[in-house]
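PT: before anyone asks, these are the final sequences, not the draft ones from last week. 568 residues across everything. Please model them as a single complex and drop the result in this thread when it's through.
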Amino acid sequence: MPNEIDAQLARLFSELPEADAEVSDRALARTLDALPTPRPASRQPARTLAILCAAALVLLALAAGALAAAGALHVSFGASSQQQKTATTSQLSLPPGARGIAAVVDGRLWLTTNNGFRLQGLPVTAAALSPHALYVAAGIGHSLVAMAPNGRRAWSHPTAGAVTTIGWAPDGLRIAYVVADGSGFRLYVIEGNGRRDELIDRAVRPVQPSWRADSLAVAYVAAGGRPVVYDLGHRSRHVISFPSARDATRLAFAPSGGALAVSTQHGFLLTGAGARANGGTFAPSLVAGLGWLDGQIALAINPAYAGDQGPFIQLFRLDRGEATPMGQLIPPAAIKALDAYGGRLTVAVSDRSGIRVFASSPAATVKKAQLPQSPTVLQLAPPARVDSLAVR
Amino acid sequence: MGERSDRDLVRRARRGDRDAAAALFRRYWQSAWRVAFAVTGRRAVADDVAADAFERAFAALDRFDERRPFSPWLHRIVTNRALDLLRSERRLAASDPPEPVDLRPDHEYGDRSLLAAVAELSLERRIVVILRYGVGMTPQQIASTLDLPVGTVNSRLARSLEQLRSSFEVHDAKRD
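LR: through. Structure below.
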């Protein structure tokens, strides 16, 4: 009987009607009109040229830095001071298995992709990689700018203020971003080609939006500190109102399904797709990163008080809707940022010598272990603020 | 000369080759339209959904990872557009019910009772059935298209077939 239904279904769909010729012709015309137009270098918009010039200047500065390191040239950063500081920078290299990595450190973007796209130290207010690292969207001045390898295509969208954080949808077709408008923060969603910008919420917190795996909903933190899931199909908002969800600091939808991990100033919780509002409390502590490592949740924690346990990454397994603690990974220094990709973690740590970024393999079965480290992919000194870290 | 691969056509279309883009369009337009029709059940809506999905997909061609197969990516966009629309309609349904499903007489296409039974499946199950039998995707491809575990796809397929078989038994009993 199942085979009979199989055959009937196959026959049914093969006998469905086709689109009318006139409709098809109109759709073809629309499709061809929508094709990205390759832009010759001489026609690049002024802003794109400005970006490329800025990137070139940064590259020149870095070349000078390299010469300085080799003793061929002395370079100082910032105003001259009595105390000479030595700045160390390394080129950003790709972590194992990654297609691209973007780190924003002290307001400067470091970017490398496996198709040759590289930026080093470009001043930005925020940045995020598209799926598969084919594009980067960045806040530059009062604009949201998309850049692609070799300047193949770039657009710029003016914003009401500085872009503070950005999140690409998993299908690459939309970008959610938060803008500081002077009195607060607003959440917008724009299509991946820079068109159809839409204001989603006038009062949010500058927390990176997270997209559901189907790209039809985006989670953000409202001005009051509650996580909100905005459904783009229904144009409806669902406020996560559990008491433990107040003061949300980070959001991460699962890479498949609809579970949403939320870190707060007090701990974290899991909600959506049958998940219950539980998780754990890590007070007093600071959550420095939140990500999904295959089916596990990775929560990076820097305890706040001296004498507490040192920094650690707590792994949780999603088990019948509940987050079950799996084990802890111990990083070599305080965690500044964390992202997960392809079954690995990428971590930025900071100590007195500076910032170091490396990747790891997950150690899902360990109860407590040193975080396995890849070779360093970025080294910066002196210590600095890590605004974001994204790996695809 | 053999038929060009999707990958080759995508590369050419990205460089602005309209012939390559048109070839891609012709290769997938009818199957994508059928997906839109099977999901929404209305020709006019399928026209809009499919055209809009193609416009968005080709505008976003720069962001398509050409190491991945083109068809699941495109069908995912079509499916998402159709779901977007149906969910919007559900939201409005209380005050403004959508027009009825456009089911034509049996002789025009297929078995009307089976189509009606498919239309009665929940949206989640219907999508999986359409991608499996309408587009010919494997469960793995459907899982990749919908961002679901393969086990969930297999389970939805099995339950859908069970529901369709039950509907048919009821239908046959009534006919007897």
